[in-house]
Amino acid sequence: MSKFPDHIGISILSNGKPLPKVLFEVIVISNxxxxxTIGPFLTDAFGKSDLTKELVIKEINKAxxxxxxxxxxxxxxxxxxxxxxxxGKESIEKRxxxxxxxYPDYGIDLISTFENSINKTFLNDFKIEKQINxxxxxxxx
Length: 141
Hints:
- With about 140 residues, this protein is of the alpha+beta class.
- The protein has a domain at about 5-85 and about 120-135: Sandwich (Immunoglobulin-like), CATH 2.60.40.
- The protein contains three helices and eight strands.
- The termini are far apart.
């Protein structure tokens, strides 16, 4: 990817209205090996959250250092789309159970974030692919 903006403003809406407290992740699509999952993030009272290039690069470098056989792309080697992944209640609860078993500290953090989110009201998971831009709007049904 040639141009990843320094800052991406992500807005999540439903029926044209901002959705506060939505827990989501961003998946950066790699051209080689595995994709990078960044987050979780929580939207603010206005249904907005920010993603910075600096954070994306930091998370890519961290994944490559921790799992060198699984990751090889730099940000420049990634596609010009990202996926916004919003898990529903069942998916998050399943992830929390797994994390508590293998990575308890991270699982406890996710429980707290999940409890403060509205995702516990979502019956379905959502994955929305968007062209990378400095502003991304996600409209949920």
